Amino acid sequence: MEDGTKNIFLIFSLSWFFTMVLFNVQFTYPQNRILKVLCLLVLALNVTLNFIIIYYLVVNYKNINDLE
């Protein structure tokens, strides 16, 4: 596996880890409304960025196979 792909998977994993940590904090302090909104925004951003990363990987894989 290439280093660039490893870095992409590292970013992918860390972003979900920090999202889950943020949700854990939100469940610890449920009365904080700003934290709820922040969780929703971070989750939406994380899903969008992960979709872009997966799309990038699929397009690159397809291009590599076309070159072969």
Helix content: over 70%
Tell me the radius of gyration.
Answer: 16 Å
The overall average pLDDT, rounded, is: 85
Low-confidence stretches: none
Beta strands, count: 0
The CA-CA distance between the termini, in Å, is: 17 Å
Global morphology:
elongated
Question: Main β-sheet, in a few words?
Answer: none
- Give the helix tally: 2
Content-based structural category: mainly alpha
Give the helices and strands as they follow along the chain. HH
- The percentage of residues in β strands lies in under 5%
Question: Topology, pairings included?
Answer:
Elements: H1 3-28, H2 33-67
Helix pairs in contact: 1-2
What does this structure look like?
This protein has about 70 residues and is mainly alpha-helical. About 90% of the residues lie in helices and about 0% in strands. It contains 2 helices and no strands. The model has no long low-confidence stretch (mean pLDDT about 85).
Quick structural summary:
This protein is mainly α and 68 residues long. It is built from 2 helices and no strands.
Task: Jot down its keywords.
0% strand; 68 residues; 90% helix; elongated
